[in-house]
Amino acid sequence: MKPIEKYIEAMENKDFAGLAELFTKDGILCDYCSNSSSQREYHIYGREAINMFFRNKFGFRQYSIMTAEVVNDEQAEFIASFGGYHIMAIATVREVDADGFIKRLTVRPK
Prior knowledge:
The structure is a single chain. This protein has one domain: Nuclear Transport Factor 2, Chain: A. It is built from 3 helices and 6 strands; from the N terminus they run H-H-E-E-H-E-E-E-E. It has helices at about 5-10, 15-20, 45-60, and strands spanning about 25-30, 40-45, 65-70, 75-80, 85-95, 100-110. A 6-stranded mixed β-sheet has the order 2-1-6-5-4-3. A hairpin with a 2-residue loop joins strand 4 and strand 5. The longest helix has 13 residues, at about 45-60. The two termini are about 25 Å apart.
């Protein structure tokens, strides 16, 4: 399974620990979609921070994705829900290490 497919699976299942484990120890996840919902964009640095961030977002039902579709080896499209705001989004795996862990992933409005 490709990193983008694993990312979508973890997001759909709200598996914050599994999501974090997809990233390198110093991996970066940047999400620019939240700007469209009157929130700040997310720049999350490191596996531990990704785990903690999504544990809170999923736990308090402040973030989820719907109707995800992997479109190629690096990208997937989905509807992101930020506390009730729905935004069409595209996630892109920008960089992976030699072991297949994500070093950098971005999510932008489509």
